[in-house]
Amino acid sequence: MKAIIPVAGAGTKLRPHTYTQPKALIPLAGRTILSIIIDQLVDAGITEFVFVVGYLGEKIQHYVEKKYPQLTCHFVQQNSREGTGHALSLTRDVVGNDEVLIVLGDTICECDFKEVIAAPYSMLGLKKVDDPRNFGVAELDETGRITRVVEKPQIPKSNLALVGLYKIKETQQLYECLQSNIDNRIKSHDEFQLTDALECMIEHGVQFNGFKVSNWFDCGRKDTLLETNAILLKKYKLASNPVLPYENTIIIPPVSIGEGCNIKNAIIGPNVAIGDNTVINYSIVKDSIIGSFSNLYEVVLKASLIGSDANIRGLSQSLNIGDNTEIDLG
């Protein structure tokens, strides 16, 4: 089985960060969104990956090849962003006849991946939501078999959202449906959707069963990203390294502090993730994500997302600062 991870999106909801950093590489609880996904799949026994890259794709490729040299990885370029259906259609030659596990690159799910992989049918990950109109939605019969899927329906007949996790056994039918939709210009919300290809497969008799994920973390926006960071910090039980004391500094767990950081005269935490080689002095930081190689001096930050190589001086309560930014708030 191969894993397909589409990571070609521009991440417009996380700008300015995604002007210079792919959304999948934004730090999260001491790791990155992409590394959490890959580690889950490697633990389930998958060793071959297909990444659909586009915007800033060279950074994705460099990161994966450096961090996971033991894996077999393929990188497929999507030059025009026309939806997940179009992105997946580009992987046909690489995948061949192998079964695939598709995991969207901006969503973290918790489930028994080994059980999903071993299932005798194609499987779609599901989660109940309050307002399903913003998601792909699955309708099930009494046996748990999926009878219909619809992308962002105006009048949903189910509150079971597709979480971005798909196990496909009938890959040839998948690619035939994807290509048919592209040839016939069948779009939903102005894009070629994977959901429409799945509905095509269902109409042609392919059996899909649903499985419910225990947790589903959306990392596509600043507020949900910070919430996910706090949850995962608690889950991973991360804190600062006790053998590296920081001068005149109070650490309030859970906190993740990268290597080579210089922190003094500060209060850090709770729910803070700091990248490598960052300098923080005379500052208070809580409920925030700070990138690598940044410098913070005399600032008070809460609910903030700070990119890498940022320099902040002064006082602020909530910021959304991209990479390579220099700010003086004094």
| Total separate domains | 2
Helix content bin? 10-25%
Rg computed from alpha carbons, rounded to a whole number of angstroms? 21 Å
| Overall pLDDT metric | 88
Q: Fill in the CATH topology of the largest domain.
A: Spore Coat Polysaccharide Biosynthesis Protein SpsA, Chain A
| Biggest β-sheet description | 7 strands, mixed
Instruction: Please count the helical segments.
Output: 8
Label the structural class: alpha/beta
Low confidence ranges: 239-243
CATH architecture of the largest domain: Alpha-Beta Complex
Strand content: 25-35%
Task: Based on Cα principal axes, name the global outline.
Answer: elongated
Spatial order of strands in the largest sheet: 5-4-1-6-11-8-12
* Strands, total number: 25
Please report the distance between the alpha carbons of the first and last residues: 55 Å
What is the name of the CATH class of the largest domain? Alpha Beta
The name of the CATH superfamily of the largest domain reads Spore Coat Polysaccharide Biosynthesis Protein SpsA, Chain A
Structure characterization notes:
With 330 residues, this protein is an alpha/beta fold. The protein has two domains: 2-220, Spore Coat Polysaccharide Biosynthesis Protein SpsA, Chain A; 232-328, UDP N-Acetylglucosamine Acyltransferase, domain 1, CATH 2.160.10.20. The chain has helices at residues 33-43, 57-67, 84-89, 92-95, 113-118, 171-183, 194-203, 222-236; strands at 2-6, 27-28, 31-32, 48-53, 72-77, 100-103, 107-110, 122-128, 136-140, 146-151, 160-168, 208-212, 215-218, 247-251, 255-257, 262-268, 272-274, 279-286, 288-290, 295-297, 300-302, 305-306, 311-313, 320-321, 326-328. The strands form six sheets. Strands 5-4-1-6-11-8-12 form a seven-stranded mixed β-sheet. Strands 14, 16, 18, 20, 21, 23 and 25 form a seven-stranded parallel β-sheet that branches. Strands 15-17-19-22-24 form a five-stranded parallel β-sheet, covered by helices on one side. Helix 6 (171-183) packs across helix 7 (194-203). The longest helix has 15 residues, at 222-236. 44% of the residues are buried. Mean pLDDT is 88; it is low at 239-243.
